[in-house]
Specification:
Blueprint: H1 2-18, H2 33-60, H3 63-95, H4 103-124, H5 129-152, E1 166-167, E2 170-171, H6 175-206
Antiparallel strand pairs: 1-2
Length: 210
């Protein structure tokens, strides 16, 4: 699976840099979107998986579900960092500064704090059912904030976030760009799934070291 994903990623990178046309209003800066949007999308998926597996642990008491929840939260945190960094680079190229406390930058910063606290909490507690239960409850409540921070709150205020790629009326993209973006979303989701399975296995069979 890793080899297939690597090949798909190389093909998508080639399409982004050599085939995809510049976007109106963004030019070739739009290339960043083919990385930024998929990693942000996968971060949301990862936090959902973390909450789902946390709820599964609360129902069953099986530590394997806790390990899967922790693995998803770890990866989600990494993907949020990648989304923040790529967004900051885009901000520098288009707005002249890496950070402007734009609504989307502010909400993603809050998300980093929430899940950074989750990882810190797990790291401060000894392994066992007490930690698993505490982490599961935290994961469930934390995910309740994700839709508001990612999809709702940023749209309630003026944002410098570019609208030619994704706007209030939906997708406004060249058909080729849209096809490549969808391929990138699928590819990044596959990468997350592959990493999540490997990390879950490691946490279940080698002991968690958060």
């Amino acid at each position: 699976m890793g080899a297939v994903l690597s090949l798909c990623t190389l093909v998508i990178v080639g399409l982004v840099f050599f085939v995809v046309p510049p976007a109106e209003g963004l030019g070739y800066y739009v290339r960043i979107a083919f990385f930024h949007i998929p990693v942000a999308w996968v971060a949301v998926i990862a936090f959902f998986v973390g909450a789902f597996q946390g709820g599964k642990y609360l129902r069953s008491g099986i530590l394997a579900a806790d390990a899967k929840s922790a693995a998803a939260a770890q990866l989600g945190f990494i993907f949020v960092i990648l989304a923040t960094v790529s967004g900051a680079i885009f901000s520098k190229l288009t707005w002249g500064a890496y950070w402007n406390w734009d609504p989307r930058q502010t909400t993603i910063f809050i998300l980093l704090l929430i899940y950074g606290a989750y990882l810190t909490l797990r790291g401060a507690m000894p392994a066992g059912h007490k930690r698993a239960k505490t982490a599961a409850v935290y994961a469930l409540f934390s995910f309740l904030t994700v839709p508001f921070l990612v999809f709702i709150l940023p749209r309630l205020y003026f944002s410098l976030h570019p609208s030619p790629v994704i706007n209030g009326t939906g997708l406004a993209m060249d058909p080729l760009m849209l096809a490549v973006l969808l391929a990138a979303l699928v590819d990044m989701t596959g990468i997350f799934y592959w990493l999540w399975r490997r990390q879950s296995f490691r946490l279940m069979h080698e002991g968690e070291r958060l």
